[in-house]
Write a structure and sequence with these properties.
Order of helices and strands: HHEEEEHEEEEEHEE
Helix content: 25-40%
Structural class: alpha+beta
Strand content: 25-35%
Radius of gyration: 24 Å
Largest sheet: 9 strands, antiparallel
Length: about 240
């Protein structure tokens, strides 16, 4: 039965790409393209026995909820029309431990788990996107099964307001969940590459000086309240 279901899923995806547009609806074609892109990014094999997808449309973004089910685990991915992965939830069947099980220290430290999280981020983020994850502060029991990490999405190496979160199984480094918070937030416009703007501060300084009356003044540094530095500030206000 398991082999038959896998074969059926593969045949459906292959047929959807092979059939003419008149034989397959536009929605099915779009879902097939996104599904194949997600499978390639996440290296999803044929261990799952059931698959179904659902279209999720908002005013500014079209997403797909893709779901795989198997005997050993379930997987849900929310991906954009371009294959961008916004949410990932992997649930192994052996995730829950017995309530009577003795507490055990994790096999992976938070620092060791961080490398698994960073590798996964590199797998689902593509240039010019990137991130540097850090371990969240955790106050959990000794028998907690996962470590949590967070970071900011970066574009061209520069931070953005978009946050990332990840959960990693501390027993074997399996990524259990991943999410970026722009799934339901829309940022209009596409930032340009920063190349060519290296001299922008020097070019902007004389233009700013001609339009504003500035004065030198000691200003307290926010990160060091006991220290002040000289800075040019507007003369008025």
């Amino acid at each position: 039965m398991k082999r038959t279901a896998r074969t059926l899923l593969a045949a459906v995806l292959a047929a959807a790409l092979a059939l003419p547009a008149t034989a397959v609806s536009s929605t099915d074609q779009r879902m097939t393209q996104v599904t194949l892109s997600v499978k390639e990014q996440l290296e999803i094999g044929d261990s799952y026995t059931n698959f179904y997808g659902e279209l999720m449309e908002t005013e500014f973004r079209t997403c797909w909820s893709l779901n795989w089910e198997g005997e050993e685990a379930t997987l849900q991915v929310v991906a954009g029309e371009d294959g961008t992965i916004y949410r990932y939830e992997y649930t192994p069947q052996n995730r829950q431990t017995s309530p009577n099980a003795a507490p055990a220290f994790p096999a992976l430290s938070r620092e060791e788990g961080l490398s698994y999280a960073q590798d996964f981020a590199a797998q689902v983020l593509h240039q010019p996107e990137g991130t540097t994850l850090t371990a969240e502060e955790q106050f959990s029991s000794v028998d907690a099964l996962s470590h949590h990490y967070q970071g900011q999405l970066e574009l061209y190496g520069l931070p953005t307001p978009i946050g990332l979160w990840m959960e990693v199984d501390n027993r074997d480094g399996t990524v259990l969940s991943y999410q970026r918070n722009d799934l339901y937030q829309t940022y209009l416009g596409q930032p340009e590459a920063p190349e060519g703007y290296g001299k922008a501060p020097e070019q902007a300084a004389p233009l700013l000086k001609d339009t504003l009356e500035l004065k030198l003044e000691y200003v307290v540094e926010e990160s060091h309240p006991d220290r002040a530095v000289l800075r040019y500030v507007p003369a008025a206000g």
